[in-house]
Write a structure and sequence with these properties.
- The chain is of the alpha+beta class.
- It has one domain.
- Helix content is 33%, strand content 11%.
- It contains three helices and three strands, in the order βααββα.
- A three-stranded mixed β-sheet has the order 1-2-3, with no helix packed on it.
- α2 runs antiparallel to α3.
- The model has no long low-confidence stretch (mean pLDDT 95).
Length: 98
């Protein structure tokens, strides 16, 4: 498989939803920002595209990324590493939206 476009979004809990209730009851876990960044990094490391875009720039993402593949992959991984190490500011929770 060699798509032209790969997109990644992050879960946002919406008030009054069944998912919010499950989280409050401890029956479901929503990943922390760091877990999401580590997962996104893992996805990118293992994504091999001959061209196209790997996008994680939706308003739900803590670190907006637009990666031109394959040439931008290493730089994006470095950016994720910097964010995981606390060297890059993440999108504040108040600005994350659906």
């Amino acid at each position: 498989m060699d798509p032209d476009y790969v997109g990644a979004l992050s879960v946002i809990l919406c008030k009054g939803t069944k998912l919010e209730t499950l989280v409050k009851l401890g029956e479901h876990h929503v990943s922390t920002p760091m877990e999401i960044l580590m997962e996104l990094r893992e996805m990118l490391v293992h994504t091999e595209l001959s061209g196209g875009l790997f996008m994680a720039n939706h308003a739900s993402n803590y670190l907006p990324l637009k990666v031109e593949m394959p040439q931008g992959k290493a730089q994006a991984i470095n950016m994720l590493d910097s964010a995981i190490n606390g060297e890059v500011h993440l999108r504040p929770e108040s600005l994350r939206a659906l």
